[in-house]
Amino acid sequence: MTDATDITRQTLAALGVSTAADLAPHFAAVRAEFERDAATITDDATWKSLRDLWMGRKSGVLTRITDNWLKPSPPELKRVVGQELNQLRAHVEQRLDALQQTLAAAAESQTLARDRVDLSLPSVQRPLGSPHLLRQTFAEIERIFLSLGFRVVEGPEIETPYYNFEALNIPEHHPARDTMDTFYLAMPPGAEPRLLRTHTSPVQVHTMESQQPPVRIIVPGKVYRRDNPDATHSYAFHQVEGLAVDTDVTFCEFKGTVEHFVREFLGPTIKTRLRPSYFPFTEPSVEVDASCFACGGSGCRLCKNSGWIELFGAGMVDPAVYGFVNYDPERVSGYAFGLGVDRLSQLKYGIDDVQLFFQNDVRFLRQFS
Ligand SMILES: [Zn+2]
Fold it and tell me: Is the entire prediction scored with pTM above 0.70?
């Protein structure tokens, strides 16, 4: 930046100016110098230097012109010098304003260029969770039985042998205990034994203890057995057991309920078959089979060519069970069933390995979201 303006350090008299005509070239030279300086402005710092050089109150160029040219002028020149000076001041102020705006605009477009948003970029993926397939099957089963007037009840996973076995008509040394290899908890000597429930049936006993008939409940939950894990077994699995007890519950109602559930769960064309079976807490007991939904009953690999698939066990509540909960077996009757949620999910969705439910492999889970 040039310091103009040596001529503004001298008086007009020293410059040999005595008329208005002499004055004009000097103002023109000063203005030209300002323009040269203004052309070099590139940023805030150089703009401020320019402003201070020209507008500085103590020694800026305009102040020097006032002090050296205007004030000492003879009266006949003073008016013209004043006019020229005012025009020069107005010009300098206007140019400085315009330069400042240009700098601000440039800075803004620089910022915009730096922070530019590329709308074509792929968005950040935020995967959403969804209910586990087992949870979905629970919900489906609950929906069907809720529509029939059943109520959902839950209970503890740690139980006493009384609630898990005795009150369900499975006394000690009963062979049925062998089929339910049980996890017992380590307890202090003398304490009442505790176990991980092998079925959700203890909740039925708790419910009947605290409630007189009519009782219509389903009990969803986790149960535990000491099975070796394989494609159809696991240490922990999932059940929905059901119980209906009232003064006039017949085998016919039982059969109708079972058939309704199978059709709702597997499809309206599925047929149901009851086969005699044995469970300690039901009499008579049945296995509920469904016509094979893969082959329609003609025989295939899924149904081992029988046309039927074993679904779950059920039966009329053995009157002996009522004795444990102070129900009058002469007055009430009922039925119970136990649905294996893992097995029903495997069948319905064609999953050949139950371990997939517990491995939490997103590639598997995502297929059912
Ligand atoms: Zn089949």
Answer: no
Q: What is the distance, to the nearest Å, from the Cα of residue 69 to the centroid of all Cα atoms in its chain? A: 78
- Helix, strand and coil in the chain, % to nearest 5: 45, 15, 40
**Residue 295 CA, ligand 1 centroid: distance in Å:** 4
Cα(84) to ligand 1 centroid in Å equals: 108
Ligand 1 centroid to residue 298 C-alpha, Å: 6
What domains are there in the chain, each with its CATH number? 6-114 (no CATH), 133-368 (3.30.930.10)
Contact 269, 292 (CB under 8 A): no
Q: For the chain (length 369 residues), average pLDDT per consecutive 10?
A: 70 85 88 91 92 90 91 88 92 94 91 87 84 94 96 95 88 74 90 92 92 94 89 88 94 95 94 93 94 86 89 94 90 95 91 89 88
The DSSP secondary structure of 166-211, one letter per residue, reads: GGGT--TT-THHHHS---BPP--TTSPP-EE-SSSHHHHHHHHHH-
Would you call 151 helix, strand, or coil by DSSP? Answer: strand
Strand 151-152 to 215-224 pairing: parallel
